[in-house]
Amino acid sequence: MPFWQTAGNATTSSSSSSSSNTNSSSTSSSSLNSTAHHNRAGGDPNQQNYGEPPGGERSPTTVSAATAVSLVAKSLLPTRRRLKLDPASKLYFPYEPGKQVKSAIGIKNICKSHIAFKFQTTAPKSCYMRPPGAILAPGESLFATVFKFVEPPENIIERQLDLKSRVKFKIMSLKVKGEMEYVPELFDDMKDQAAVEQILRVVFLDPESPNPALQKLNRQLAEAEAELENRKKPPEEPAPRPTGEGLVIDEWKERRERYLAQQQVEVGPV
Q1: Structural domain that includes position 212
Q2: CB-based burial of residue 265 (10 Å sphere; 0-12 exposed, 13-18 middle, 19+ buried)?
């Protein structure tokens, strides 16, 4: 075959091959564009969709993730206080080794509901509280007394360690429905609703060195004792109701006057 025909055929073949490749590329590109469009429209079941479904609805995965984030954020928020404590975070005791010492704390209900509270301690064998728990009406307050036995130190080092006591107290609170008698089982029955109100740290004071904290402690102890005495008193009986202008009728005198008047009527004028 003459060389010019060979060259022409080669050129024609090359052009055909190039055209075929171009058509194949166009077909492949069209196929990819169609597939991408199909996937964006949600047509491919194997393609995971990370966006929002049609209609603005959230997928179950998105909802569960949002719920989890909400729960975590809620758990990080501080618990709303139900009680106001005075002192707020410490219990002050006079340091008197070998003796039982006392502290006091004011507790006030600052909620609109009745609140039960109770004490807990890390040293139940050497500490106790009076009262150990109670129910406070809205706005009601009381002074609680805390008793602790101070072990005598064996040396100066142990004395210094005692002054940094590791004993702690915890006040739990619980919302209750109306007035009722306090029983410790309340917190067992509704432990899911109980909250840690405050953890109190023990601080010892030198009774030989007067300071404002010791003076305040003595005032609170006096108020706590006065409240205890008032609770021990029997309820006062209501006074007799006055009549007329506020004078109590003397029943014996009234009967005597009626008797004398009756005698005069029976005897008649002389």
Answers
A1: 83-232
A2: exposed
